[in-house]
Design a protein that fits this description.
By secondary structure, the chain is mainly alpha-helical. The protein has eight helices and two strands; from the N terminus they run ααααααββαα. The longest helix is centred in the last third of the chain and has 27 residues. The protein is globular and about 45 Å long.
Length: 189
Amino acid sequence: MRNTICGLMLSMFFALLFSLTITAQSDVFDQSFLSEKGKQAYSTLVRVQMFSVGGIGYSGQTSKGELALDVLIEENQATLSFKQLIADGTLEGGLYGVVGLKMLGCDCFDQEFLRYKELHFGKDNTEKFTIQFGCMGMSSENPSEKDMILNEISTFIFEAAERKECGRMTNGNAQSMRECFAIKKANKK
């Protein structure tokens, strides 16, 4: 009887240990789980050299980064992909990762935005930061200027992310998009 109970408890222990191992592994980003389009989008974002959300230039063209963001957000591994972009991407690629998490409404957003700033905006980081909105572009390697730029644009960026997500959720229906965005703004207050 004692051996049966010990054997049963040991079996339960290993089953629990195995399930915890599987759970921990599912939180690890594996690019092989992305579709081919998802892999291309991730590859674009990890090395992108300009951040832009919304039309750019005189023609209001959508940037390659934003197009890649739109593809990656549809992936099953989108949250893990965006978190990995924060760590492995350029300054701009990491910011697309933050925006993607905002669009997904991830509870991890505040923590990941803080991690992004710690990784990419330290006083020793002289990586060039380039953004463009419409016809206006800004670029700097100076850590304090980069921090100022990020602080100045963050509200705009995250509101744009919420508008994009509302558009995605409502299939672009203008009235539904306005209602969705109004609800998101009201929930912030």
